[in-house]
Amino acid sequence: MSGPVDPLELATAYQRSAVVAAACASGVADAIAGAPRPAEAVAAACGTSPRATRALLGGLVALGLAGRGPGGYALSADGAPLASDHPASVAGIVAKEWFFYQAWAGLPESVGDGHARIPPWRDRLAADPGRSLDFLRALDDLAARFGGELPALAGLEGPGRLLDVGGGAGSHAAALARAVPGLEATVLDLPAVEPVLRERHPELAFVPGDLDQPRFGRPPTERWDAVLLANILHDHPAGRCQAIVATAAGLLVPGGTLLVYEWVLDDDGDGPPAVALFDLMMLVENEGGAAWTAPQLTTWLAAAGLTAIETRHGAGPIAVLRATAP
Ligand SMILES: C[S@@+](CC[C@H](N)C(=O)[O-])C[C@H]1O[C@@H](n2cnc3c(N)ncnc32)[C@H](O)[C@@H]1O
């Protein structure tokens, strides 16, 4: 981080997160997305407490996300994406962040005991598929905003067959398929994830699979020209990452390409700022998960017998590691 830092300003930053989350969750953001409305009308439309709604609207004005005119309150230009029907809506991302905020509230305990504060993904998916698929929709929204560098960094040349392992909503496979002529992209994920892939990227093929199974559950003869691990390795402990990379490498044809798309931590572990914070997200979210350094990722690729290993950094916190099967 550069510039002066005020610890007390940081200590109260949670209040701004809560205002944004409450505006989306209560329906207040949607209620003031069109024509201005008085506070009482917003409360009536949302079925919320008039006193609390008035306070929330004041908070939105204080943050510059809404304004008040003669007709009442309306989202400002900066606040407009809070509305769920805005073309670049962030409402799904806000809901995801609020879910994780509650895990972050346990960060002091995680620092003490080293454990995550929420159940593993597979348990969350079984217990609450609706929220879990919303999480994958939010990742797709984030990829649409920030994932644009992958095709250039990947440097794939078509035609060929790509397997996006743990591909979720299919954001990255879809971007590669759009960018590389003749590339046929398939998403592998847990069966319960298929509906979100069908909804967000129906142009892609889906195969059920499991990171915990030999060959991720795929048949012995199946081989792919390229395998993508996008935002997978940070969810898992180091020992498991090595096994996942080895399995992914074993699915490649000779000369095939393994791509690892990750939030890559500086070698000293202190930055870039977004990745240092993401590393803490992994601490509270995934047992044993972490943001890894490029040397650590490279070690796993080399241990899998891959060659020509390269790390390609984008302008943001994401990097792509690229390696070739012998
Ligand atoms: C952090 S998300 C990344 C999704 C996507 N690759 C992206 O970059 O947006 C992790 C993905 O791994 C999948 N996943 C988790 N455990 C899995 C398992 N045991 N087998 C297959 N996929 C799994 C999840 O369903 C989810 O789609």
Topology:
Elements: H1 7-11, H2 13-26, H3 28-31, H4 39-46, H5 50-62, E1 66-69, E2 72-75, H6 91-104, H7 107-113, H8 121-127, H9 129-146, H10 150-154, E3 160-165, H11 171-179, E4 183-189, H12 194-200, E5 205-208, E6 224-230, H13 238-250, E7 252-263, H14 273-285, H15 294-303, E8 307-313, E9 318-324
Parallel strand pairs: 3-4, 3-6, 4-5, 6-7
Antiparallel strand pairs: 1-2, 7-9, 8-9
Helix pairs in contact: 2-5, 2-6, 4-5, 6-9, 8-9
S-adenosylmethionine (SAM) binds next to helix 9 and helix 11.
Give an overview in words.
There is one protein chain. The chain has 326 residues and is of the alpha/beta class. It has two domains: 7-84, Winged helix-like DNA-binding domain superfamily/Winged helix DNA-binding domain (Arc Repressor Mutant, subunit A); 146-278 and 286-324, Rossmann fold (3-Layer(aba) Sandwich). Helices cover 45% and strands 18% of the residues. It is built from 15 helices and nine strands. The protein has helices spanning 7-11, 13-26, 28-31, 39-46, 50-62, 91-104, 107-113, 121-127, 129-146, 150-154, 171-179, 194-200, 238-250, 273-285, 294-303; strands at 66-69, 72-75, 160-165, 183-189, 205-208, 224-230, 252-263, 307-313, 318-324. The strands form two sheets. It has a seven-stranded mixed β-sheet with strand order 5-4-3-6-7-9-8, sandwiched between helices. Helix 2 (13-26) crosses helix 5 (50-62), helix 2 packs across helix 6 (91-104) and helix 4 (39-46) crosses helix 5 (50-62). The longest helix has 18 residues, at 129-146. The chain binds S-adenosylmethionine. S-adenosylmethionine is lined by residues 121, 136, 139, 143, 166-168, 171-172, 189-190, 193, 209-212, 230-232, 235.
